């Protein structure tokens, strides 16, 4: 891995953006730390671990913790590929502009269409899961109605903060980062050191979850414990035009998000397992929501209340980051004329310098989905499952497009470069992504067709509707923004900077 002082190193942020065909219209007030905080609070190990702790243990037992390591390593490879891409293309929108510039307009349309819906659904899911914490803190009965109102409260508060501009987004993201670190690393260490009820060898003990069959099948079934956790780092690139020196800082922020997020998740997951007073009941599926009981037993009533405040802060920050990332993706899509209502969606507030209309959509659509969940509670799990697979599909579309360009002779020209390792890392990232998508697509075993295949059904609906709009409305013909120009742009950057190779390996 290297940082290239040659290509793009001599270009200012505005000049780099000009090479890519855009004007510098946003406030670049986001630092490396704030950009990392945005990605980390979107990834949110606290949300991921709390949401799937009981499910993972009941399917794969304590060894399911190793999925955090496996998926973290795989997603780190993906972040390396994304780092090279965003370093050459530090523009708003992330997945969409990367796919467009690496492949073409129609390909980017499908990648963005899947990614937008997956991200919007994720916003709803996180707000829904956060409502339970809010209800517990304020002593509200956790009913269908209260869940809806608390979910809408998360969405509206996040929207109000996002409306104020990038500085407040960065501030709240940093507060959320602190809450996450306290809630996962701090609490995890406390549980590991002072409240340990199990031996460390428990992480190699299946505790009989395999029954009469092979443990391999049970372990594969618990993969969601890691797969649900490790996305969100790409959000660092969604706000590229609001980051100072993004070509250098965003690749670092993405990798930090995965590394710190992975360590945090390990401390949190491991701490809960080792501190569980009745681990067998969790593994046997008798305790479907064990974390509140673990906290009550180890922290006491007052300590559990403090943790709830920390958790709510983390959930709110996660919703905030998701809304910001989704709005920038919508803005980027609209700026190129690729989506209905693109002129309205592409408007940027002259005062706050944020895409306010896109933010309204990133709040309103999740709110409508929350109403659907209120009408049918059974929709929450399949909606969340679709979001995970949709994100991974969009990721791998970029990874595949990057590999295709490398095979055509592309040498990334941003300050961050993998050098001669780029091709191998790209191949490994694609192989990992295919493996992850296969795991996410495996049908369930309940015997009910819809329940067992709901993830694939959801993805199929999104893909078919996207293709239908693409070939009927032909949005790709309405946009003349650059596309498929990775090699040309790399050559232009090298020409302007007088650079020809990557140096200064660090």
UniProtKB/TrEMBL annotation:
<feature type="transmembrane region" description="Helical">
    <location>
        <begin position="453"/>
        <end position="472"/>
    </location>
</feature>
<feature type="transmembrane region" description="Helical">
    <location>
        <begin position="65"/>
        <end position="86"/>
    </location>
</feature>
<keyword id="KW-0472">Membrane</keyword>
<dbReference type="Pfam" id="PF13520">
    <property type="entry name" value="AA_permease_2"/>
</dbReference>
<feature type="transmembrane region" description="Helical">
    <location>
        <begin position="36"/>
        <end position="59"/>
    </location>
</feature>
<feature type="transmembrane region" description="Helical">
    <location>
        <begin position="354"/>
        <end position="374"/>
    </location>
</feature>
<feature type="transmembrane region" description="Helical">
    <location>
        <begin position="172"/>
        <end position="193"/>
    </location>
</feature>
<feature type="transmembrane region" description="Helical">
    <location>
        <begin position="107"/>
        <end position="127"/>
    </location>
</feature>
<feature type="transmembrane region" description="Helical">
    <location>
        <begin position="421"/>
        <end position="441"/>
    </location>
</feature>
<dbReference type="InterPro" id="IPR002293">
    <property type="entry name" value="AA/rel_permease1"/>
</dbReference>
<feature type="transmembrane region" description="Helical">
    <location>
        <begin position="147"/>
        <end position="165"/>
    </location>
</feature>
<feature type="transmembrane region" description="Helical">
    <location>
        <begin position="380"/>
        <end position="400"/>
    </location>
</feature>
<feature type="transmembrane region" description="Helical">
    <location>
        <begin position="306"/>
        <end position="333"/>
    </location>
</feature>
<feature type="transmembrane region" description="Helical">
    <location>
        <begin position="253"/>
        <end position="275"/>
    </location>
</feature>
<keyword id="KW-0812">Transmembrane</keyword>
<feature type="transmembrane region" description="Helical">
    <location>
        <begin position="213"/>
        <end position="233"/>
    </location>
</feature>
<dbReference type="GO" id="GO:0022857">
    <property type="term" value="F:transmembrane transporter activity"/>
</dbReference>
<keyword id="KW-1133">Transmembrane helix</keyword>
<dbReference type="GO" id="GO:0016020">
    <property type="term" value="C:membrane"/>
</dbReference>
<keyword id="KW-0813">Transport</keyword>
<protein>
    <submittedName>
        <fullName>Amino acid/polyamine/organocation transporter, APC superfamily</fullName>
    </submittedName>
</protein>
């Amino acid at each position: 891995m290297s940082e290239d002082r040659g290509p793009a190193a001599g270009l200012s942020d505005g000049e780099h953006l000009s090479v890519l065909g855009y004007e510098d219209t946003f406030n670049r007030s986001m630092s490396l730390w704030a950009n990392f905080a945005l990605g980390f609070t979107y990834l949110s190990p606290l949300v991921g671990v709390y949401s799937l702790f009981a499910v993972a243990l009941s399917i794969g037992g304590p060894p399911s913790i190793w999925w955090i390591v496996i998926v973290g390593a795989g997603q780190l490879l993906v972040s390396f590929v994304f780092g090279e891409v965003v370093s050459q293309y530090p523009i708003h929108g992330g997945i969409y502009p990367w796919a467009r510039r690496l492949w073409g307009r129609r390909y980017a349309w499908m990648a963005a269409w899947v990614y937008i819906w997956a991200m919007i659904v994720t916003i709803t899911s996180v707000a829904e899961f956060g409502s339970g914490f809010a209800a517990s803190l304020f002593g509200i009965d956790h009913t269908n109605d209260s869940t809806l109102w608390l979910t809408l409260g998360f969405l509206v508060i996040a929207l109000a903060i996002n409306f104020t501009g990038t500085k407040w987004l960065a501030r709240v993201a940093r507060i959320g980062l602190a809450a996450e670190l306290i809630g996962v690393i701090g609490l995890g260490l406390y549980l590991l050191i002072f409240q340990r009820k199990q031996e460390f060898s428990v992480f190699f003990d299946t505790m009989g979850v395999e029954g009469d069959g092979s443990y391999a099948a049970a372990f594969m079934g618990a993969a969601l414990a890691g797969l649900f956790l490790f996305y969100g780092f790409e959000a660092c690139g969604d706000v590229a035009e609001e980051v100072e020196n993004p070509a250098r800082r965003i690749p670092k922020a993405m990798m930090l998000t995965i590394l710190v997020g992975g360590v945090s998740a390990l401390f949190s997951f491991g701490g809960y397992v080792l501190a569980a007073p009745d681990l067998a009941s969790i593994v046997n599926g008798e305790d479907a929501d064990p974390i509140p009981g673990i906290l009550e037993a180890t922290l006491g009533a007052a300590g559990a209340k403090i943790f709830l405040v920390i958790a709510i802060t983390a959930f709110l920050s996660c919703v905030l980051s998701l809304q910001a990332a989704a709005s920038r993706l919508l803005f980027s899509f609209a700026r190129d004329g690729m989506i209905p209502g693109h002129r309205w969606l592409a408007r940027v507030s002259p005062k706050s310098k944020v895409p306010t209309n896109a933010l309204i959509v990133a709040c309103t659509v999740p709110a409508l989905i929350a109403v659907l969940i209120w009408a049918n509670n059974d929709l929450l799990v399949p909606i969340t499952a679709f979001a995970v697979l949709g994100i991974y599909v969009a990721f791998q579309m970029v990874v595949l497009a990057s590999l295709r360009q490398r095979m055509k002779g592309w040498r990334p020209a941003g300050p961050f470069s993998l050098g001669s390792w780029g091709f191998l890392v790209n191949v490994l990232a694609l192989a990992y992504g295919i493996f992850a998508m296969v795991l996410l697509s495996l049908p369930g075993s309940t015997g009910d067709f819809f329940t067992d295949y709901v993830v694939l059904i959801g993805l199929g609906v999104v893909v078919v509707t996207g293709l239908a709009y693409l070939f009927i409305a032909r949005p790709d013909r309405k946009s003349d923004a650059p596309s498929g120009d990775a090699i040309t742009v790399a050559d232009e950057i090298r020409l302007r900077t007088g650079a020809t190779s990557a140096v200064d390996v660090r």
